[in-house]
Amino acid sequence: MGRLVSKRWWAGTAVVAAIGVVAGLVWFKPWALWVDETVNEALPSATGTAAGTATGTATATATATAPTSAPAPPMTTTPTGPVTVARGSLISHEHTTTGAVRMVRLADGTYTLRLEGLDTSNGPALRVWLSDAPVKEGRAGWHVFDDGRYVDLGRLKGNRGNQNYPLPADVDWSAYTSVSIWCDRFDVSFGAARIDRV
Fold first, then answer.
1. Facing residues of 151 across strands?
2. Number of H helices, E strands in the chain
3. Above pLDDT 90, what percent of the chain?
4. What are the boundaries of each domain within the chain?
5. 184 φ, ψ (degrees, to nearest 5)
6. Alpha-carbon dihedral of residues 147, 94, 191, 177, nearest 10 degrees?
7. Alpha helices (H) in 29-121, listed in sequence order
8. Is the pLDDT of residue 153 over 50?
9. pLDDT 10s digits, 38-85
10. Local structure of 56: helix, strand or coil
11. Element (H, E) at 25
12. Whose CA is closest to 174, among 96, 123, 119, 105?
């Protein structure tokens, strides 16, 4: 009888241990550290529909009112391409991280955060955060980004490459001073950059 109880106890313990191991693997996803995901996106460009319509109308009016022998006067136009308004360089925190960060104003007035030449480790629940926290070197900077205000721009698309993260229309990017590749699973920064106006 004692042996039967002992066998059942060991069998139950083994099942619980196996469930614990599987749950731990699902939670930590250690294999992600050895799997690279490269995403290369082009910098967004404006469609130019509204600007094209306005330019066409202005050109037609100028041509109609100008003398036929004189050329049309030059027109003042707003930039039609992306403009970098702030930039920074990523530093390593919990994982070795390199690359550049740019805040880009598009021709339609919207803003996009762009990661260029990103190279970091893969991991579970990696997010891109725009934050008001200071960027600190070493372990002192690993956990500061959830202490103040931040905007979650979405899941990190890949741990390598060039990627775009559009800002919500109601977000004033100038109220934030840093960007973090944030592991939401373990509340730690893989790498971060201070962004400065240009």
1. 130
2. 2, 11
3. 63
4. 35-46+82-197, 51-80
5. -70, -20
6. 20
7. 49-65
8. yes
9. 999 999 885 433 333 233 333 333 333 444 455 555 555 556 789 999
10. helix
11. helix 2-28
12. 105
